[in-house]
Specification:
Number of helices: 4
Structural class: alpha+beta
Order of helices and strands: HHEEHEEH
Shape: elongated
Helix content: 25-40%
Largest sheet: 2 strands, antiparallel
Number of strands: 4
């Protein structure tokens, strides 16, 4: 099935743009920080929660229709911010 002939690409683009505007509410981040998951409390590092609050979003994308098929390509994330214990424990590159 050629989705580009079935799916309204303008509506898909509109939904993707709406998704790019979504952000976590403070109450959701507090919930993530304070709840117990798999018997462990505080599994999310503060730096990761900060990233979710400030930087998390759907990356840039290219949407097109080629020969009746939808092509959706996401751009790579920009420079990664260091957050969390696992990132701090990596050896220095300098």
């Amino acid at each position: 099935m050629r989705l580009g002939e079935v799916v309204d690409v303008d509506q898909l683009r509109e939904q993707l743009e709406a998704t790019r505007k979504l952000r976590f509410h403070k109450s959701e981040l507090i919930w993530l920080a304070g709840n117990t998951f798999y018997g462990r409390r505080g599994i999310f590092e503060p730096g990761f929660l900060e990233w979710l609050e400030q930087d998390f979003r759907l990356s840039d994308y290219e949407l097109s229709v080629n020969d009746g098929q939808i092509s959706l390509v996401f751009q790579a994330f920009g420079p990664r911010r260091r957050c969390g214990r696992s990132m701090r424990s990596l050896p220095s590159t300098s």
